[in-house]
Amino acid sequence: MTEQVESVISADRSAQAGIERSASLWADAWRDLRRRPVAIASAVVIVLVSSMAAFPWLWTRTDPRDCPIQLSKATPSAAHIFGTNELGCDYYAMTIYGARASIIVALVSTSLVLLVGALVGMAAGFYGGWVDSVLSRLADIFFALPFLLGALVFLSMLRSHSVWTIVLAFAVLGWPPLARIVRASVLATKNMDYVQAARSLGASDRRLLFRHILPNAAAPAIVVATILLGTYVASEATLSYLGIGLQPPEISWGIMIAQGQSYVTSGYPHLLLFPAAFLSATVLAFILLGDALRDALDPKLR
Amino acid sequence: MGGPGAGGLKGLEVTPLGRYLARRLLQFVPTLLGALFILHYLMTVGIQLNGDPARAVFGDRTPSQSQLQAMQRVFGTDDPCFEQAGNPCLTVFVHRLENMAQGDFGVDSRERPVVTLIAEHAPITARLALLAILIELLVGVTAGVLAGLRGGSFWDYVVKVSTTMLVAIPIFVVGAVTQLVLGVEFGSWLKGVGAPDLLTGLFSIAYRTDQPWASLVMPAFVLASLSLATTARLTRTSLMENLRGDYVRTATAKGLTRNRVVGVHALRNSLIPVITNLGISFGNLLAGAVVTEGIFNIRGIGGLVFGAVATGEAATVVSVVTILVLVYLLCNLIIDVLYAVLDPRIRLD
Amino acid sequence: MSDVVLEVRDLTKHFPLTKGIVFKRQVGAVRAVDGVNLTLRRGETLGVVGESGCGKSTLAKLIIGLEKPTSGEILVQGQNLARMRGSALRRARRNIQLVMQDPYTSLNPRMTVGDIVGEPFQIHPEVAPRSDRRRRVGELLELVGLSPDHINRYPHQFSGGQRQRIGIARALALRPEIIVCDEPVSALDLSIQAQVINLLERLQEELGLSYIFIAHDLSVVRHISDRVAVMYLGKIIETGVDTEIYDHPTHPYAQALLSAVPVPDPTLRGLRDQIILEGDVPSPANPPSGCRFRTRCWKAREVCVEQEPALVEREGSAHPSACHFAEERDVVHATD
Ligand SMILES: Nc1ncnc2c1ncn2[C@@H]1O[C@H](COP(=O)(O)OP(=O)(O)OP(=O)(O)O)[C@@H](O)[C@H]1O
Ligand SMILES: [Mg+2]
């Protein structure tokens, strides 16, 4: 009995602490995030890069495709702060415009993967039984295929490449980890008392899933999705670097690095270093923000 | 009092380990077939969306009908199902599986058997992978132990920051920048001052046949970078967990020195997740080899894929990747099985 | 007072134990509830008491329709709840509501109190017109002793007792006749336990509710129950009016349970002979033959192994008792 009373008292205390704290897990996480310099810095980088992707003209008035050939491979100067590439294109403008492909691929792929992963994970976790067996096996099989190798096969079969073929490859191959995570958190949530209470009131499956289970099971998926954004930025660049992502008239950091690399030995390291720095900073920002979000959403660490 | 079925099993006396191994092997078959089918289907959809890789071999030339058909036969894309969008081409898949079972993995665009190609290119990739795994274990575990022994210390911080960077920065960027800084800049300087061959080999911008091991060290570091970070983090967390464990306290109480406790007890247990991770990191290693070998101009299996991708030889890509996936799955199976045999504590169900 | 609102007949729930991943085969069953009969009358409280794991929560879930019974009937107003489907089941559900044990997990942390108490109206829109719902939620909160101003707060902003009141308000929303309370106070502080029990009693008087009140020790149930049923391993082993059970228990298990109830008066403490049960509760997947209590019973004989005692009135027991050797034993003479 005393044990019980003690646990009640401690629970009571935490409930009281809750009154002084705030309304929900997300509000708590938000407060926590605002106190983390790494999270703030990452968020700033992400906002900057996103603005480059959405409104490149905010950043540069130069057209990256307006390339006077006589200016070929100029080193950084006041007129061209990142220098120019072998065709004489302004490298700063190219780097700014290069953000768009990365961000579009990352955003669309992650949204699709989130959608497919969440649906599969929800179905498997909520309905269990044979639905779960079939879907989990399927996810296992996809899991057995190294992501980049799969994308390599698919994309090398295609002759025309665009943002959308890359997105397709990522979405088809990328959903299993998310499905696993959503499944696990749905499994953990669906037997919570409040879900049972709603069920006993006669709530429909849809209501249980979308009103009770999903809001309480979404946190881990959102953390992983944030990290995935970074992974997809990196993967798009890698594939473009290999020559089966985007192709040259398009501007992408991966292509710029691939082309810049061939001039490295002849003394133009800036052609490699500028896009590499932008790419790395973007990927790093997403991954660090995901990490910070994970810490902020994990009540055990608080 | 057991239910139906319990009686039948009694006679067999299956040990939990035996049952685990049987189940793991049983799971392996559908996973393998499934993964191969996904590869096949990705390829099929690619062809259906985009046309035949056999046609691509001719580049800008328009081949005659008979030339094209001959090429299609070579690639195994002469089935009409490849012209029907959405058709999974199951008969082709089954046919391909039969061929694979007989060791025939198809041919490249110059009609050389892929198996021969692989055999030619495998030794150098094996050397590279071996070096990379050694580096991953040596550097990763050392960094993890340094960080894990005292959480929050300077070393912990250094390891945390550097592993985060390594995880975040794509491997081709790591490779290109390493090549620039250590190969181009430092390497040329070494050559300038007339350093010994071994040293210039270590910092060479590309693979050198006269330095078959030394010139692979830098690429191996690049290749190992991603898994190295994971290994360091895993070692750190599990070492910290183990150091908090009861048996460490008991051992310390019994009067064993801290070094011994850490070395003998905690570290040994901390390495278990690291070893399991080797299986997963092997997948990264294979994909990373394509990029790394491409950058450092290493003519291994990765370089083979890199070159085939660059020249648009899709058939070669598919065949080689299929073999890589096969090797990857087999390695994972072996690691799992070894792990179950070596560590009696793991949960077998 | 004699009209029956709920009758449970031969109710069983067996959870299958399966083995294998692809081809599941049944290797046995957990007999969580194994042939339970109950009758609940209007305005009455039936206490159900038993050790942890004896199947009380499963019984509660069966009665409110959260689990489908393996066999047996649950009759509400003459209709069998266990057979109902679809809209008939939805309507029948309005009549039986549940109050859960743990107020810390039974409220969705992401919903406001207004949404939680108002959810029954959203699920059963025919009960209250949309425009009326907010007012009704306010009334419900007032009814259970909470301020209607708290309607926009989240559960974690309340204490355990307050949360349990929210849970009770939710259960009352659809104006049910029957409320099943599954250990509604065992997670609460002692002083708050009394408040919540008083609230339940007041509501019963005001609204004419019938309660099934589940608890794992007899002292909590005593205060509120009109009749008591004692459960052991999925079966009811003794049942009767509360004075019969408390003052004249005849089943050895009920006697043991009662002897463990703390004695309030320290001077009388030594006078009571406490029965300490030996051994553990057997697994419900593999219950003993004959009388289920025999493995821990000091009276066990041959007949207990062979024959299962029925829950009937016996020579030594004026009320139903499932013991071949039912007889009174003055275990708690000291308390009253
Ligand atoms: N979904 C289920 N699947 C399998 N077995 C179950 C399930 N639910 C309950 N059981 C088993 O049924 C038995 C009775 O469980 P129940 O929860 O009804 O006990 P209880 O009397 O409410 O215990 P407590 O006082 O701890 O709440 C237990 O042995 C339990 O393990
Ligand atoms: Mg219970």
Automatic annotation (TrEMBL), chain A:
Q: Which InterPro entries match?
A: BP-dependent_transpt_permease, MetI-like, MetI-like_sf, OppC_N
**BP-aspect Gene Ontology terms:** transmembrane transport
Topology class, membrane: Multi-pass membrane protein
> Does Signal show up as a keyword for this record?
no
What's in the keyword line of the UniProt record? Cell membrane, Membrane, Transmembrane, Transmembrane helix, Transport
A single Gene Ontology CC term: plasma membrane
A Pfam family the protein falls into:
OppC_N
* UniProt domain ABC transmembrane type-1: residue ranges: 99-290
Q: Which family does it belong to?
A: Belongs to the binding-protein-dependent transport system permease family.
Name recorded for this polypeptide: Peptide ABC transporter permease
Which organism does this sequence originate in? Planosporangium mesophilum
Automatic annotation (TrEMBL), chain C:
Keyword entries, A-Z: ATP-binding, Nucleotide-binding, Transport
Does the record bear Transport in its keywords? yes
- SUPFAM superfamilies per UniProt: P-loop containing nucleoside triphosphate hydrolases
- Asked if the keyword Transport belongs to this entry, the reply reads yes
Q: Which Pfam families match?
A: ABC_tran, oligo_HPY
- The residue stretches assigned to a coiled coil in this entry are none
UniProt protein name: ABC transporter ATP-binding protein
